[in-house]
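Session log. Operator J.P. requested a structure for one protein chain; no other inputs attached. Running the standard single-chain path with token output.
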Amino acid sequence: MGKNIEIKAHNRQPAAIELIIQKMNLPFGGIRHQTDTFYKTPRGRLKLRESDDGAVLIPYLRKNQKGPRSSDYVLLPVEDPVLTHRILEEMFGLRSVVEKTRRIWFYENVRIHLDEVEDLGHFIELEGVVDKNNPGGPTLEKVELLMELFSIGEENLVMKAYVDLMEDNDD
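Structure written below.
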């Protein structure tokens, strides 16, 4: 199982944050169009992510809270996303679909995502991978450092997943 320390925030100045990233000369991980199909679950979240580079099923557990939070997840490669979707929809029911374009950079073990989410706008996510080489404490410090560099304040932090925000918009 994978573990992240992560934050999500409204990105009200995408060009300014990208300029900071460029000045830091961080490695670029590419641009991905991602379709995340979420299924109804009694606990946690389950999404089928289809992207330019394939499909993966991602079950994950994460509390809704502002600020750095822990996320436990598994990435399961999917060979046939159409069949997988059909089975999961029949088993669990469809919750919602989130479409986004994600630009990715890396700061050591922290992934920086600049997301443009359909119907929601611009966001930044910082996902620090926690593993035997990158323990939680130092990873949290890196996430907090990047928050400071990008001027991500409490008022910008988002405690919910994109799927939750989409459902909030539907109300």
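Operator note: The chain has one domain: 2-170.
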